Amino acid sequence: MSSVIAERPVVATPTILYLPPNVHSLAAATEAIEWGECYGLTLDPDQHATLRAGLGERVDGSWAASEVCDVKGRQAGKNDTAKVRQGAGVDLFGERLILHTAHEFPTANEDFLRLVAVYEAYDDLRKKVSRIRYANGEQGIEFLSGARIKYRARTGGSGRGFAEADCVIYDELQHLQPEHLGASFPTMLANPNFQAWYCGSGGFSFSGPAHSLRRRAILGDGGRFAYTENTAQIVEVVDGEIVLSSPLEMLSHESLMTHPGYANGRVSFEAFETMFWALGAEMFGREILCIWESEPNTSTADMPIDTAQFAQLADGQSEPVSGIRICLDADPNRQAPVFAIAGIRADGLSHVSVRHRVKRTDGRTVKTQVIEAAKKLTEAHGCDLVMPPGSPARAWLSELVAAGVEVDEMTAGEYAEGCGAIVSAVEDGSLRHRGQADLNEAVAGLAVRSSGDVDVWSRRKASVNIAPFVAATCALVRVPEKSSTMSTEPMFAVT
């Protein structure tokens, strides 16, 4: 069954709903809801709707839905629903392995700590736990029964090495990419009764898997699939095509009622009004009211770089051996600085990849880590640090210079040359990269702005953080056309 509700509900029940066929019993959903109530996780009606959609059972006791999707605006309770799903999975359904993945490590870690708090707050739950692992990359809860709930930040390889997972939770669905599914989805193949559970908010233009799931729900051809979404977006199907439009007034009572926090009285109108003026209409719509960006035109004619062509140039073992250059760039908020490397391979082809990512995971400031990494990388490779024009990373320029890092500041003209050069390298097939998720994502979300007679990458117009590709572009244009200077042994593992 598929329905796109035209009239807004009086409570935040799903505005887009798809239910799986052949549901015989909702007993598991009812038991999961009761489990949550026993342990301080009392859910709202919209969360009940998600569990009832996703935990319906067929006559033989297997899940009616092998995939479950829960989409809402930010702070609408998706993670509480997921916590109930995980706790019930271990306590009630006899599941042995649950993997919880998120786009960023801090998100996965926060979800881990919240579920740990539930198990530590109740004696009967705590007595079932044999061990809690807090080590970075190993976060998880292990039970006396042998069951495990493991937490991972998504990469192209996260999930590999696990087998027979009962459930994989994909948090931050809007950032999920095909290579992430490729790494983790097969962990469930040996399990005849698995579930993939997706949680996220409004999709971006580059959110391919999320758009695919939503399309299945709206068009009613999902198969063994459950989908619930709370959105203020107006969704219509005209002649078999999905037509999306935004509400006329985002701060109207009607629009805000689609957000469970407002509908259930947990968030005030004044709070949403403050959020609206702080974020602006577009971001407020996507983040709070779950208004999705449109999918990009499947034609590659208007894309700066053909993503399919770029994907064909991936070589997981690629590495440069000469002419190496390192470039630093950062996202506008300077929370995810990235160093890219470029150079010439042994076969004469050009190479670009993300060399090092700075993440706030050990208590040190981002600036401190950037300066330390810049010194080690430039010393290891015997080169200056390339800095793009107008880069947010220029905020650290004086500290980098004071620390003894030789900085190569690019001009706007050189940046334009670099943008043209990397496009040409992709088109003629002379470039190789390592297929890294953040680099692929940046390419898929690229946008351009005019600079004189040429186009250059635009941070403002881009739909994603393009810092990895900006850094790769600027590093590549600094690589000598013919180089015999061999690189030294790197001081960080190439990722």
Describe the structure in your own words.
With 495 residues, the protein is α/β, with parallel strands linked by helices. Helix content is 33%, strand content 19%. It contains 17 helices and 20 strands. A 10-stranded mixed sheet has the order 1-2-10-3-9-8-4-7-6-5, sandwiched between helices. Strands 17-16-13-14-15-18 form a 6-stranded mixed sheet, with helices on both faces. A two-stranded antiparallel sheet has the order 11-12. The radius of gyration is 24 Å and the shape is globular.
Observed structural traits:
6-stranded mixed sheet; 495 residues; globular; 17 helices; disordered C terminus; alpha/beta; disordered N terminus; single chain; 10-stranded mixed sheet
Helix/strand-derived category reads alpha/beta
* Low-confidence regions: 1-10, 483-495
Content of β-strand: 15-25%
What does the radius of gyration come to?
24 Å
Total helical segments: 17
Describe the secondary-structure layout.
Blueprint: E1 2-4, E2 16-18, H1 27-38, H2 45-54, E3 67-71, H3 78-91, E4 97-102, H4 105-121, H5 123-126, E5 129-133, E6 140-143, E7 148-153, E8 167-170, H6 178-184, E9 195-200, H7 208-219, E10 225-229, E11 234-238, E12 241-245, H8 253-256, H9 260-263, H10 269-279, H11 281-287, H12 307-312, E13 322-329, E14 338-344, E15 350-357, H13 366-381, E16 385-387, H14 397-402, E17 407-409, H15 412-427, E18 431-432, H16 437-444, E19 448-451, E20 454-457, H17 467-477
Parallel strand pairs: 3-9, 3-10, 4-7, 4-8, 8-9, 13-16, 15-18, 16-17
Antiparallel strand pairs: 1-2, 2-10, 5-6, 6-7, 11-12, 13-14, 14-15, 19-20
Helix pairs in contact: 1-2, 1-3, 2-3, 10-11, 15-17
